[in-house]
Amino acid sequence: MTANIGSTARPSHVPVERVVNFDVYDLPGSAEDVQLAYRAFQQSAPAVFWTPHNGGHWVATRAEHIEAIQKDTATFSHQRITLPRLPDAVPRQIPLELDPPEHAPYRRPLMQALLPRVVNAMEAAVRARAVELIEPLVAQGRCEFIDEFAAIFPVSVFLELVNIPQSDRGMLREMAERSVRASDNAVRMSSFEDLGAYLAPIVSARREAPGNDLLSTIVNAEIGGEKIAFDKAISFSMLVMFGGLDTVASMLGFIARFLATHDGVRRQIAARLDDAAFLRHATEELLRRHGVANTARVLTRDVELDGAVLKAGEMILPPNMLVGLDERKVSDPTTVDLSRPFPIHHATFGNGVHTCPGAVLARREIQVFLEEWLRRIPDFRIRAGTRPVMATGMVNGVLKLELEWEAAA
User: Fold this and answer.
1) Is 0.90 topped by the overall pTM?
2) Which domain holds residue 111?
């Protein structure tokens, strides 16, 4: 612990003992287990600390503080959610970088488009897509899980939802990667510009001739009795695209990696694939252990937290995953316990007014993956001689995961 690490000078109100060498894009131990790399700071650092990396910002590590931050939008604003902080001249990401009450009219059409009854109606198509991708892999006896499944299954479901050509999947995924895992604002901005240029003619066409897809719904939303402005429709579309292109793919990568290295848990799930209630419970427990998304906040006023004085205008990162990994809230949190009492305490999808609107669909996709993959490939492992490649950032992810199993005759 030192006061001169990183590139940003320690503010005078930050005590030396609150300074910790934490870089959200380069965490020690993340090559072995990303979530445990975050938890190491929860175990060893002050409950609230300051880091000079990525422009200098605070980090909250205890579930109690993280949940309070997530719910108190008046003090901890969403006006900027990425690290390092984007310049003020950059348009906000709608609706995630809006606070109540401004954000509600933008969020409403997205929530209505992803209600449980809507996801229920989608399930047959989601399941068919999973089976279509898994079946050819069975006889191979191996696969690169990210490229051959995780980056295709939820992304293809999402592209169908927004009526975007499946042939554009690779290009759009590359843009999403730059957006959520680049530590350089210039790289992140290039992804925004590229996606904005891609979406502009599509958004224009959907505003002139709306379809029944999700993109048509959000780019024609009524805000304050008037049709959403074109620039805001582009911003809204970009945020939805980035979320749909990466988050569930990242979750699937972490879950598959865990199951490949934990035979007991994998076999427990494989033995109860016809038990829907058990599968929902198993999905929730795997989500608790493998959170992926991070969103920072901006302080709107001076506030004291855990004895630290945070100043208006400063940023703080409350890592969602640490809620479910805090032993003050969850007993034996590093263990995946399929008999853990319900409800399972976590904040993988956030809390409060900004809880992820795609959570219902994400849960369903993960459950479908468990059912259809384990029905066909119940025993698999990390391919001998390989190691998973993982990355941290605003969305943590598995970039490469080689799996192998006994090929079916």
Assistant:
1) yes
2) 16-404
